[in-house]
Amino acid sequence: MHYCTFVIELYRCAPTLKSILGVGDSRQKHTLPDLQYDYGALEPHISAEIMQLHHSKHHATYVNNLNVTEEKYQEALAKGDVTAQVSLQPALKFNGGGHINHTIFWTNLSPSGGGEPQGELLDAINRDFGSIQKLKEKMSAATVAVQGSGWGWLGFDKDSGRLRIAACANQDPLQGTTGLIPLLGIDVWEHAYYLQYKNVRPDYVKAIWNVVNWENVNQRFQTAKK
Question: Is the model's pLDDT at 54 over the cut of 90?
């Protein structure tokens, strides 16, 4: 993924432009976003233990490593060290992608989630997939089929104005990888479900639909269309 595309995506997760571009010594560091619900609020579908480890350990590690890598990248830029800049880009992509993906993921979930979307989002789902049930079936299948670690996504194709399903490996961010604007993501790294669902990934994916925050997905859809 090109670094400029990656920077655009990181901007969505950062408080100011300075935190992206590293302008001067006042560059703000990326921070772990607070959850809008307690760790146990998504039970029984996602356990409190998983949520605590996932958020406070795994996501926090991506944030910390991203900050360290960005500092090194800025030093390389200042020195004009192109070799160092190139060597740091995989770490920027991995840790930055982890930060982007998880920041979206937490908002995609809600204790009062589940059910069905409403309004224009539901109309678009019916148009592009036939029904909400067919969307769930197709997205679940694509997500379960991810080899190793990765994500299943519902995204918006701005060129066609259509909803699309895609899967990304590891922490590759959807927009930088496919050009789709992320609306809804399902994390299928084992740390997202193994303590509760063991190796039965399909059960986890089936359960997560009970806590999908369709209001958040719809907000992302409305923003993506602009």
Answer: yes
Is 34 assigned to a binding site?
A: no
- In a domain, residue 190? The reply is yes
Report the C-alpha gap between 43 and 47 in whole angstroms: 5
Tell me if 152 sits within 8 A of 182, measured CB to CB. no
Q: Is 55 annotated as a binding residue?
A: no
Query: How large is the angle between the packed helices 119-129 and 132-144, nearest 10 degrees?
Result: 70
User: Three-state SS across 195-225?
Assistant: HHHCCCHHHHHHHHHHHECHHHHHHHHHHHH
Domain count, the chain: 1
Note down the domain range covering 73.
Answer: 45-225
Annotated binding residue 172:
no
Question: The tokens 């193994």 sit on which residue?
Answer: 194
pLDDT in tens, 113-138: 999 999 999 999 999 999 999 999 99
Identify residue 50 by its one-letter amino acid code: I
User: Residue 29 corresponds to which tokens in the numbers above?
Assistant: 């560091």
- The confidence score (pLDDT) of residue 27 equals 62
**Spatial contact of 184 and 217, defined as CB atoms under 8 Å apart:** yes
CA distances from 222 to 12, 114, 171, 203 (A): 15, 19, 25, 30
Which CATH number belongs to the domain containing residue 183 in this structure? 3.55.40.20
